[in-house]
Amino acid sequence: MNVVLIEPEIPPNTGNVARLCAATGTRLHLIEPFGFKLDDRQLKRAGMDYWQQVEWHRWPSWTAFINQVPASSRLWFIESDGPRHYAEVTYRPHDYLVFGRETAGLPKELLAQYRETWVRIPMFNPKARSLNLSNCVALVLYEALRQQNFPGEIE
Fold it and tell me: Can you list the domains of the chain with their CATH numbers?
């Protein structure tokens, strides 16, 4: 699996996602610009010593990233108001789970372009704007891995 963070802003969230990716053998793609420096102390603290255990890639832009995605892979855009919820779709091993900035979400142009693969995480309190980014990544990634019978699980 692949997790994509577009313009992440909060170092502890990115560090937590890196740790999650290390634990699950998932590739992490970070698309600039970032709201922090990669040598940020909070980023390293949240990721602990897992950064060297995760396969991660830094991309200067969405265009640079999307140009390397194999045609056989699908991108799933996780954002509020998606037409389906994240557990209603079938994930494949080389899919990409795409998440937006903590404060702004995914760009509207991307959501319009990829409407067929735009999914949401159900919310139940109209006053709650969103869930934490690293929690969202964990929810969707583990659903994708569950659907694939947790390949590579240590027993």
Answer: 2-147 (3.40.1280.10)
What are the helix (H) ranges across the chain? 11-24, 41-47, 62-66, 108-113, 133-147
What is the chain's length?
155
Q: Which of 3, 8, 1 is nearest to 101 (CA)?
A: 8
What digits encode the pLDDT tens for the residues 125-150? 999 888 999 999 999 999 999 999 99
Instruction: Name the DSSP class of 34.
Output: P
Cβ atoms of 51 and 58 within 8 Å: the answer is: no
List Cα–Cα distances, 117 to 78, 89, 141, 147, in angstroms.
9, 9, 15, 17
DSSP β-bridge partners for residue 98: 4, 77
Contact 59, 82 (CB under 8 A): no
pTM of the model: 0.94
